[in-house]
Amino acid sequence: MGWQYTASMKPRVFNRSILAREHLELFLISAIGSLLAIRALLHLTGYPQLGGGGFHIAHMLYGDILMGAADVLMLAFIGARVQRLAALIGGIGFGAFIDELGKFITSDNDYFFQPAIGLIYAIFVILYLTFNFLGRQQRLTSREYQLNALTQLEEAIVHDLEPTEKMRALALLRKADQKNPITQQLQSLVENVNLVPEDEPRRITKLLHKLDTVYTRFWRRRGSNPAVRIFFILESVIFVMAVSVGIFKSLNDVLTVFHNTPNYEVIMVICQTVSSLVAAGFAVVGALLLTRSRAQAFEQFRRATLINLFLTEFFLFSRVEFRALPGFIYNLVILSLVTYIIHLERRSGARVKSDQHR
Fold it and tell me: So where are the chain's domains?
């Protein structure tokens, strides 16, 4: 369901932004990047300590300062630009802060506490799910459409308004209450704003057009379906085999499950095995659906990848810490690719339905 208005909605205490997902994702990406950069830098420099004479300045403090700076920016300035900057700075600060989680959950302030990496990963997964919920497409109130249209008018004041920005503002106002005088006045204001010529298409736009063309050509080939089917099944087999190798290496420890209480390592291996098998099941279902519906098939592939990201990788990070990073990056790339393909399939389906109604 897209963004739409219903007159029965009651006014909300807080008004939602259609840019919420963009800003929240920027916060999350900058937080993850900050944490990884700090860990890499500390590893390369031998984990130095800042301070002397009995003092140690933890980098958590720098994270607190950056998060405080983000709050000040949000309170002192207005506009989408400062929101993006605050999301970036706040994310970097949060990554520096959460990196030292191990110190605050252990009695001896152990930065290298092994389960801490898994807990940090779990926190980021929870943040992702929360941000995804907050940024989901849903019904807005008329007031929220009006307020979001006003944010588009920022460009008319800070810079000249471009045609696409004007169309975006008018589209928001068309979904608001048309009988409301504020909506009518805003529509009149937007329609009378002078425009400037649109800039040349950005490089990313040109790249996306090229990707669309390559995607269309790929599916026109005779062997495209078998190739995709083999790729995802093979990927699942490799993941399961990788987990099986881990089980084989610690076979004696795994067997203690039937006799004694298993240790932390064994529990993580067992959980990783179960989650990878579940992900493989979704991948097989997707492979079977591929000839019937590409959209449904890739939705199953997406679920398989999400399970690997949210569960398999969590148990892997908990067990081997940052040695699990290559697998995480690989799954993230696959998820981005699959999500993009689903977007193309939905857009193609909407185009077909539109042609049928004509």
Answer: 1-12+138-199, 20-134, 205-357
